[in-house]
Amino acid sequence: MLLEVKNVYKSYKKPFGIIKKESVEILKGVSLSLKEGECLGIIGESGSGKSTLGRLIIGVEKGDCGSILIDGIDISKKNRKVEKEKVSVVFQDYGSSANPRLKIIDIISEPIKVFEKLSKKETINRIIDLLEKVGLSKEYLYRYPHQLSGGQLQRVCIARAIATNPKFIILDEAISSLDVSIQVQVLDLLIQLKKELDISYVFITHDLTAVTYICDRVVFFKEGNIVEEVNCMNKLKNVKSQYAKALLHAAMTMDSREEIYEVQRIS
Ligand code: ADP
Ligand code: MG
């Protein structure tokens, strides 16, 4: 198993708690797993703790209890550098996750420098190769983030995420800030990279339409707990919990995105 989250709890201290140690529980015993080659969707409304779980998995924060295993190794116990190399992350906010003062070449080379020792020429070749993988040409190398569109910049963030050859990537609302037509293009890129590079995804979102487009399995997240799990996307319509039903209903009535996705897929 690539990733195993076992009974993880996480609470934060209330900033204005009356009692000094007053805290609020965000994750309440979360367990899930990700197999090789899989795309697992985590869907839930805003504030349900999805990003918190993402931060625990990439190891920038620690849970209060429970364990997170990557390739069978508990990341809270072992030398995390080795395990960290296996996980990358792409956030919603491509604008702030790419330093505006750095050129694209420097943004993508950041993680490469941490994990590998390459000469300058090797690094440039590597970055050109990564840019091509995400559908950008080498003419973007020396541009700054503000000279790129949202979709192009998110492609740069994806290039940076795959630069270290991770085994899986946490995509935290990675397409949510993009225009709908661009969302489909980025989803298609992610699907293509998944095949090409043999990577897996944890796809965090509040958007069920995107989940049906890219995920193999999905867990419904509510107030820090998994309330339902769907292991086969064809069975999505059979969800039992009120919460999952409501999300499904909202997705079906909300917009015509499914049609836009479909049109793009055919064309
Ligand atoms: P989601 O990604 O599902 O929208 P988050 O994981 O970002 O949810 O947040 C869940 C809850 O945890 C929110 O109520 C948020 O205010 C709270 N929270 C997140 N990070 C912190 C933090 N560092 N300190 C205190 N509260 C936090
Ligand atoms: Mg979030």
Please, could you describe this protein's structure?
One of its GO terms (biological process) is transmembrane transport. Belongs to the ABC transporter superfamily. InterPro entries: AAA+_ATPase (IPR003593), ABC_transp_ATP-bind (IPR050319), ABC_transporter-like_ATP-bd (IPR003439), ABC_transporter-like_CS (IPR017871), P-loop_NTPase (IPR027417). It is a single chain. With 267 residues, this protein is of the alpha/beta class. It has a single domain, classed as P-loop containing nucleotide triphosphate hydrolases (Rossmann fold), CATH 3.40.50. 39% of the residues lie in helices and 24% in strands. It contains 10 helices and 10 strands. It has helices at residues 50-58, 80-84, 94-97, 104-115, 120-133, 150-162, 180-197, 208-214, 242-254, 257-266, and strands spanning 3-13, 23-34, 39-44, 65-70, 73-74, 87-91, 168-172, 200-205, 217-222, 225-230. The chain has a 6-stranded mixed β-sheet with strand order 6-7-8-3-9-10, sandwiched between helices. A 4-stranded antiparallel β-sheet has the order 2-1-4-5, with helices on one face. A hairpin with a 2-residue loop joins strand 9 (217-222) and strand 10 (225-230). Helix 4 (104-115) packs parallel to helix 6, helix 5 crosses helix 6 (150-162) and helix 7 (180-197) crosses helix 10 (257-266). It is globular and about 50 Å long. The two termini are 37 Å apart. The mean pLDDT is 90. The chain binds adenosine-5'-diphosphate and magnesium ion. Magnesium ion binds next to helix 1.
